[in-house]
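Human: You know discrete backbone vocabularies at least as well as I do. Show me how you would write down a chain together with its backbone fold. No explanation is needed for now; the record alone will do.

Assistant:
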Amino acid sequence: MNHNWSVEDLLTEYQKLLQRAIDEIWENTTWKEKKAKHRYPIGNGKYKYYETTRLFPYFPKSNEFKRELRNKLLKDWPFAKHYVDSTIKTAYSILESWRQNYLKGRRKRKKPVVKRKFVRVKTTLMKVEGSKIRITVKPRKKYLELDYSNEWFYERIKDWKVGELIIREKDVYLTFSKEVEFSRRIKIGVDSNLMSLDVYHPEKGWIKVDLSELHGIAETYDRIIDRLKSIQKKAPKRISRLLQKYYARRRNRIEDYLNKLVVQLSREFPDTVFVFEDLNKFKMLENGSRDFNRKLSRSTWGKIVQKLSYRVPIEFVNPAGTSSTCPKCGSKLESRNGQVECPNCGFKSDGQFVGAFNIFVRGLGAALRGGEARDLLPYEPGGELRLVNPKSVVRVDLSGRTFTHVPS
């Protein structure tokens, strides 16, 4: 929400303090040599792999170091002491993010520099009464006050707990949380595919979440971006501005879709543990064709799981054999005309259903090696697997808050 506070001095001093914290941690960082794997494309979707010896950074994290750092930063600090604790926490967060990008080759061995002005406000610096928050700047001298009762989000979070705030020059970010009682009774298996999420629910059956619109968004903007790149040499500056605009539009539309997807997933399957495969997209890119790799790169499984984890419990299982193991006898399935068939027991089904069901079984802690038919689905006569077609297909409603069901 917007504010009209005079906080330029606080923002400036916090920025300087944050940079000092990063400088101190950086100067005490230990660098160790380690072997790292790399690859580069050699054409036809293939890659050449090689190893190098790289320097890996290790940041000092002992309590003694943090105590000394805090004492250094407190000298001549004109505001409340708790801002120093917030600064140290933020400095480590920035450096850990830099380290991940450095190890992936996206950053050089160069110290991060704080360019944006913001202040991270801990809950110990706030006093909350209903919808009113009082923030301590200087104890017994200067306070900031805000009331969010007239904001658009108030009705949705009025009973929630207020978390940390982030103050910027013209606005403030508020965070809220609430405790949710969760019985952990039901687990569901989620098979992540290029154009869908296939969900197996022990009570609702097989539900296919259609992601074709998400891929359509990415594909549409990719075509525009590819076309602009092909003519970039003719007008470099103008085309660069257009590329920036369309990259931002692509990112924002995908983010909007994903946010609505996870909200609707959490509402469609309440009181549920979501079980996903622990997928490695990097390995899947090694053997695919160029077209397949392009489609795979548009998949957003990691982002879906990350965003969903903020709302529901998530578990991961080993993906090996989930789409190729017969759920009745444990034999290896064979693919025939888009379906899978077991040469041992004659079981036939859609491969995506089998994947979702086997992920569900593995999430229960059972091995995929077959068993008695009656042990598979105890609520169906004879325990037979009859759901070879999805019970329903659901699509993300971009203007609503729940899925649109399309019976199949």
